[in-house]
Amino acid sequence: MSTGFFDDIAKIAYEGPDSDNPLAFRHYNPDEKVLGRRMEDHLRFAVCYWHNFVWPGNDPFGGQTFERPWFGETMELARLKADVAFEMFDILGAPFYTFHDHDVRPEGETYKESVARLDEIADYFAGKMENGGPKLLWGTANLFSNRRYMAGAATNPNPEVFAYAAATVKACMDVTKRLGGQNYVLWGGREGYETLLNTDMGRELDQLGRFLTMVVDYKHKIGFEGTILVEPKPQEPTKHQYDFDVATVYGFLKRYGLENEVKVNIEQGHAILAGHSFEHELALAGALGILGSIDVNRNDYQSGWDTDQFPNNTPEVALAYYHVLQQGGFTTGGTNFDAKLRRQSLDPEDLIAAHVGGMDVCARGLKAAARMVEDKALSGPLEERYAGWRDAEAQAMLKGERTLEQIADRVAKEGIEPQPVSGRQERLENIVNRYV
C-alpha cells in the first residue's frame, strides 16, 4: 500500500541504454548474466536507512533543509518511516537494506527502553520482509551520536561507557540475526583521539581489541552465520581514528588474533580521506584476505571532508569491481549506497533518481570490469610483467632456499646486470578507457 510520499512513482524498470526516462534503468538489468551470474547477485545492492530517512539535510555550516513527515521521536513516526523506507526499497527493486539501531527507532530514556523499541521495530520490519521485502545486508549500532560517546565507545576512558556500548552491540547483533542479516558492521565513529595530551593510545587499543574479541565470541555463541565487518575511516569526526585504513585495520586484527574472524567494509569516500584510491583499498584487502563488503559513496575531490555523494564515475567504479571480481566476487557482502542527497535536493523523486543513477553507474562499471576479466586485459600484461618470478632460481629465492650470500655469489659469478623494463602505464590506462 502506497504511503503517498513518493506520489505513486512506479517501480523502476530496465528500459535499456537508449531510454531517456529519468526514472528507468538504462544499464542495471537484474537478470542479465555477467560472468555466468545474475547482475543482481553480483552487485547485491543495499539501500541505507540513515541518509535517506534520518539525515535532515544539515552540514557544518547550516541546519535542516529537509522536511519529512516522519521526522520526530515517537514509535508511531518510526513505523511511518519504515513504511516509506520499504516502499522505496520496493520501487527500486533493491534486494537488501542496511541500518543503525538509532536510525529505526527513537532512543529511550533508559537502555531497556531503547532495546524494547528496537525489538518492536524489528518485528515491524520482519513483517514487511516476510511479504516480499528486501533482505538485511547488515545491521550496526550507532556508537557515536549520543553525547555519552563524545570520547569514544570501546575506547572511552570511562568503563561504564564501554559497558553501555557493549550492551548496545549485543542488542543490535540479536536483532540482526533475527532479521537474517548477512553481516554485522562495526564503524568506530569516535574510536580515536582529538589530542594525545589526554590519550593513552596503548590502553585504548587494548580496550578496542577486547571489545571486538567479545563481539566475535558472541557471534559464535548465538550461531550468527554472517560476517563481522570493520569499516576503516581515517578521520572526521576525530582527529585520528584507530581504524585509519585497510592496512591499519589488518595490523590491528593481527595483533589481537582476529584476522581470520573479521573482514572489512570499505567505503570509497573513506579511502579518499585516507589518501588512497578506492581500488587501492580493495586490492590490499583482497591481497590480505579480508575483503568483505563495500560502501559505494564518493567524496568531492575539492573538499576535505566526507560528502557521501552517489557514484557517478564509471571508470573508478569499473576498477573497483575489477578488484572485487578478482577476489571471486561478494559472498555475504554487497554494494551499499551509504550516500545522501545534496541538501538542496528536496523532492521525494530525488531520492529515487539518485539511486537509479548510482545503480546504473555500478552496472556499467561491473560489465566493463567483467569484460576486462574475460579478456585478461589487465591480468595478461600483469602476468607478463612478473613472468621472471616463475623461473626456478627466482622461486628458490622466494621459498627461502637461498641465503643472501648465495644470491650475491650468483650475481657476481654470472655477471648479472639487470636492465629496466617499461611498466607501460599509459598503454594500460588506454586499455581501461577502451572498456569503460
From TrEMBL:
Family annotation (InterPro entries): Xyl_isomerase-like_sf, Xylose_isom_bac, Xylose_isomerase
Cofactor note: Binds 2 magnesium ions per subunit.
This protein's record includes keyword Isomerase: yes
Active site per database record: H100, D103
Keywords: Carbohydrate metabolism, Cytoplasm, Isomerase, Magnesium, Metal-binding, Xylose metabolism
Sites where the protein binds Mg(2+) 1: E231, E267, D295, D338
Gene3D superfamilies recorded: Divalent-metal-dependent TIM barrel enzymes (3.20.20.150)
Reaction catalyzed: alpha-D-xylose = alpha-D-xylulofuranose
HAMAP family according to UniProt: Xylose_isom_A
Family: Belongs to the xylose isomerase family.
Complex formation: Homotetramer.
Protein name: Xylose isomerase
Organism per entry: Nitratireductor thuwali
Lineage, highest ranks first: Bacteria, Pseudomonadati, Pseudomonadota, Alphaproteobacteria, Hyphomicrobiales
